[in-house]
Amino acid sequence: MKVIRNYLYNVGYQVLAIIVPLITSAYVSRVLRPEGVGANAFTNSIIQYFILFASMGIGYYGNRQIAYVRENPRKMSQTFWEIQIVKTIMTLLAIIAFEVFMMFYTRQPEYMVAQSINLIAVAFDISWFYEGIENFKVTVLKNSFVKLLSMAAIFLLIKGPYDVTLYIVVLAISTLLGNLTLWPNIKKDLPKINIKILDPWRHFLPMAELFIPQIATQVYVQLNKTMLGGMVSETASGYYQYSDNLVKLVLALVTATGTVMLPHVANAVSKGNMREVNRMLYKSFDFVSAVSYPMMFGLAAISLTLAPKYYGPGYGPVGSAMMIESIVILMIAWSNVLGVQYLLPIHHQRDFTISVTIGAFVNIILNMPLIHTWGLYGAMWSTVISEISVTVYQLWAVRGLLNYKQLFSSSWKYLLAGIVMFIPVFWMNQHLKDSWPMMGLEVIVGVIIYGVMVLILKAPIVDQARDLIIEKLKK
Hints:
The chain has 475 residues and is mainly α. The chain is 84% helix and 0% strand.
């Protein structure tokens, strides 16, 4: 029940973290217009490279290391402060690198300086610690409060296309405040230790191992926006981000399992319980398959009318981009289970690193010709093919550790149910009245069709849901 509770907390926050920008983006897209939205997307993609350097792979590494030692408070405290020292130093180096970069980069300096607040916020991000001890309640409640404040600030302060800088500042400060709210809890969660016993640099090489896959991941997360802004237009970069935002909202429901399961699996590995690790893996893979298939087909079915209706006039290309990008929902769901929930906790960082490096390499190779030929849609296909290559390699990497037959035993049921759902929903979306109530009806029809199909096919997710309900009723 603890894993489920943490999953719901994390899902709640991940959804809120994307829903707040989505709620505000319906307003911002009209106020700042595609040009302003594109400017924010393009400059943010640049600052993310410096944030990547400052983060130094600490998200996954810190989460896992805290999970290993959380039953020993003094060792946990030592580990936390050692990792935090390294992170602070890396952030300072990243800030210096940014200052040097700004000596030569003259395009939109005001926007870039505003984006740099995000870089300062990195030093204060200790969410990895609370994820490691599986206390998601603290991060969720405090960050949720800050997100809601930022939403209010956007509606109150952003009034016209000249407010791009102010919009960037509001978003960045909300990130900084969200990170700062976690620090008051540290005093009661960690015992005091002697600073002389700290050895922060013992973590540096292990962090570097996870830094490489972070670099690779960031390449095909941010490079597409950067290249679109340079090769096509900043407006195209904004279209890409708005498509990605809606897809990531759906993905949050799936990838939240990775953040929750990583410390749980890592703790089982530290106790040598590999049978339990594999059992959790098969169960998690079936769950994300059951959830990601309908999300992929459902989003694709309504995307062509959802995007322009939500974002407003001038955002039509976002709908077609979303339809292409919806494929990554399933691919990232699977790679999240295989990579984050399995390869990392069992110390197969090399395979994880190779998988995302392959994805980055594929993305770089394909971006130039595809963006040159098809612009925004070329960038989307490059993203999709990159994610497929990551998942295919990870499946190959676990060939001797997992049973493919058991892993995919029920996947065909979810695939069939998703296809049967897609056909009528897509027809409704294209032929019936284009309105919000009709789109809501399309979603309801999709959920009902998928649910009925899953029941008819007797998919394992039905048994899992039944067992959970029975356990809840007993309590």
